[in-house]
Amino acid sequence: MNNLIASSLRRFLDRMSQFFITGDSLSLCRPLHLLSVYCRIEQLNKATDAKSRARLGNLLLLEVVETHEIFILELVTPSAAAPDEQRISVFSPLGSALLGMKSGETCSLGFMGHNLSFRLIKVIG
């Protein structure tokens, strides 16, 4: 019985972490966060090395540093976001942290007292 509860709790925590890390609903109540993301998008549009940096529309090959899991995400606008399909908004905590990163760089996000680190392996297209 305890295994069933632990498994159910684990699934719940996984879904919650996915929502808070990839969802962008919290950014709507944080105007400074929205402004900083818009500024970064504008800076990337003018940057000479923009093709080597994570930006809107890119596929990103990432590694979760703590677990060594590797996966691909696409940075998209909020209306195109679908975390279950690996498309995350640039306004989500993870999306905004990845925006402008180069291959080899790492970002960390806090969730429920724990940090998760993500390493950008490669910017694809």
UniProtKB/TrEMBL annotation:
A biological process term (GO) from this entry: regulation of DNA-templated transcription elongation
Bilayer-crossing regions: none
Keywords: Kinase, Transferase
InterPro entries tied to this protein: GreA/GreB_C_sf (IPR036953), TF_GreA/GreB_CS (IPR018151), Tscrpt_elong_fac_GreA/B_C (IPR001437)
GO MF annotations, alphabetized: DNA binding; kinase activity
Metal-binding listed as a keyword: no
Domain (Transcription elongation factor GreA/GreB C-terminal): residue spans on this chain: 53-123
Keyword Transferase: yes
Protein name in UniProt: Regulator of nucleoside diphosphate kinase
